[in-house]
């Protein structure tokens, strides 16, 4: 798990049994960015939804296939981050789709260089999502 800022952390796939630990760590919400059936060993979203409900956490499902982000996906993620209680843990297979959604959302209102500095500090290099920046 990597903290991006006080409101958001991203992680690789979590399991239903991890949700109690996440709740104990203070997370209030989860966002699943991994489509059901992507891998045979991943839990289905319904199992994660049940585990979240048992711990009193909010959970939302925004499945992203591969790196195919559309404007609607970015807008939905933005709205989820506005509406959900914080802190939020967003997860997918490796965390990359989740942090990419956050970065694309943030780049609407912040300089891309600042957003990329945040993603880099969290251990993700997603500069390829954006056009080359001046001075880079």
What does this structure look like?
This protein has 136 residues and is an alpha/beta fold. It has a single domain, classed as Protein tyrosine phosphatase superfamily (Protein-Tyrosine Phosphatase, Chain A, Alpha-Beta Complex). Helices cover 37% and strands 15% of the residues. It contains five helices and five strands, in the order E-E-H-E-H-E-H-E-H-H. The protein has helices at 19-24, 45-54, 71-83, 96-106, 112-121, and strands spanning 2-5, 8-11, 29-32, 58-61, 88-91. Strands 1-2-5-3-4 form a five-stranded mixed sheet, with helices on both faces. Helix 3 packs across helix 4 and helix 4 (96-106) packs antiparallel against helix 5. The mean pLDDT is 94.
**In what range is the share of β-strand residues?**
5-15%
How many structural domains does the protein architecture include?
1
CATH hierarchy: architecture: Alpha-Beta Complex
Low-confidence region ranges: none
What's the structural blueprint in terms of helices and strands?
Layout lengths: L1 E4 L2 E4 L7 H6 L4 E4 L12 H10 L3 E4 L9 H13 L4 E4 L4 H11 L5 H10 L15
Parallel strand pairs: 2-5, 3-4, 3-5
Antiparallel strand pairs: 1-2
Helix pairs in contact: 3-4, 4-5
Salient structural properties:
136 residues, alpha/beta, Protein-Tyrosine Phosphatase, Chain A, 5-stranded mixed sheet, 5 helices, 5 strands, globular
In short:
With about 140 residues, the chain is an alpha/beta fold. The protein is built from 5 helices and 5 strands, in the order ββαβαβαβαα. It has a 5-stranded mixed β-sheet, sandwiched between helices.
């Amino acid at each position: 798990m990597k903290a991006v800022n006080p409101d958001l952390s991203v992680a690789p796939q979590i399991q239903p049994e991890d949700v109690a630990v996440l709740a104990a760590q203070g997370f209030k919400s989860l966002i699943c960015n991994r489509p059901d059936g992507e891998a045979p060993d991943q839990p289905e979203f319904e199992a994660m939804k049940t585990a979240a409900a048992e711990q009193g956490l909010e959970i939302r499902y925004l499945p992203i296939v591969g790196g195919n982000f559309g404007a609607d996906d970015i807008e939905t993620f933005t709205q989820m981050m506005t509406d959900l209680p914080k802190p939020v843990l967003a997860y997918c297979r490796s965390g990359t789709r989740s942090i990419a959604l956050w970065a694309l959302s943030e780049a609407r209102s912040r300089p891309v260089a600042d957003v990329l500095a945040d993603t880099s500090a969290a251990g993700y290099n997603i500069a390829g999502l954006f056009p080359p920046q001046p001075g880079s």
